[in-house]
Amino acid sequence: MSAKRDYYEVLGVSRQATEEEIKKAFRRLARQYHPDVNKSPDAEARFKEINEAYEVLSDREKRAMYDRFGHAGPQAGFGGFTDFGFGGFEDLFESFFGGMRPGAATRKGPTRGADLRYDLTIEFEEAVFGCEKEILVPRHETCPQCQGSGAEPGTYPIRCPQCNGTGEIRRQQQTFLGSFVQVTTCPRCQGEREIVTTPCTLCRGRKVIQVERPILVKIPAGVDEGTRIRLSGEGEPGERGGPPGNLYVVLHVKPHEFFRRDENNILLELDINVAQAALGDKIKVPTLDGEEELVIPPGTQSGEAFRIRGKGVPYLRRNGRGDQLVLVHVLIPTRLNGQQKKLFEELSKTLGKEVVHQPEKGLFQKIKDALGM
């Protein structure tokens, strides 16, 4: 198995990159390598690698651990981080004596259930306007037959004979620091204090069964690639009365055939002919809300951008929407009939042959000009 690449290298950003720079890099790469768009053999693997890198670098705590310890810091999934270093005298003592502490108890208390992750792909329009999706989430639930006891109905667990129901084994041991009692978890009952002699036939004594449960996910308007939706309490069940974990739904947005997204603005490239550019025109422009009329002023140059207000993406945490930016390209005809050629020849005589060079602007500068930035 090949070693993992550096997460900063995966996203193509420096180690000093801001959260916004990391977010922009992720969105750009996620669209480029989305399996629905990129059909190359390694696209899916690159897409997963990009998601993994973003999940760590977009979280301040995980990023700090990664910067300090590399790939040994953030652990897979939502399980958090490996605990590095010592947490005081007790941890130091455990590191030397393998869990020996005077009077230590190993009884297990309530444990919170594990978090789950579900990757959901939605359409471009669904991300813009929001939607509801029903998903099937495989997870464990308390066995309905034994009610989580692990024992066949009509039978009951018995006290563990090895630890006598204490859940722990104590052994006295002499060390260079003196006499200590070594306390370890009972290997037979695993600290549960009791054992099942007649396992439940449905869960086979595991106390839980795996099911696929339908869950309705409400996706708000304005979400984007990589948005995470938390559904509290929809993760794995807790143990010994502990609370359940959470379900995190990670959204992936399919690219649109015509529209592109830049934050809360929508970009559309549109072709017009020479006459429309020179004389001006009123044209119908597609938007996600339907067609809108756009005025092309006389003398429009190829590459100019025009803004249609309020036809972009809704803001997630406030009212209003972004704009739609229409970038026009002037098409030069490649085939002319006799009449068209004659008209262009007459026009050519009136225009002369002097060439005036115009400064070239990049795409984003043209967009900024359209937004008045």
Describe the protein in words.
By secondary structure, this protein is of the alpha+beta class. The protein contains nine helices and 15 strands. The chain has helices spanning 7-11, 19-33, 43-57, 60-69, 89-97, 124-129, 274-279, 338-351, 363-371, and strands spanning 116-122, 131-142, 158-159, 168-175, 178-185, 194-195, 208-219, 228-231, 247-253, 260-262, 265-273, 281-287, 290-296, 305-308, 324-331. It has a four-stranded mixed β-sheet with strand order 10-11-15-14. Strand 10 and strand 11 (265-273) form a beta hairpin. Helix 2 (19-33) packs antiparallel against helix 3 (43-57). The chain is elongated.
Order of SSEs: HHHHHEHEEEEEEEEEEHEEEEHH
Give the oligomeric state. Answer: single chain
Number of strands: 15
Strand order of the largest sheet: 10-11-15-14
Structural class assignment: alpha+beta
- DSSP helix count? 9
The gross shape turns out to be: elongated
How can the largest sheet be summarized? Answer: 4 strands, mixed
Helix content: 10-25%
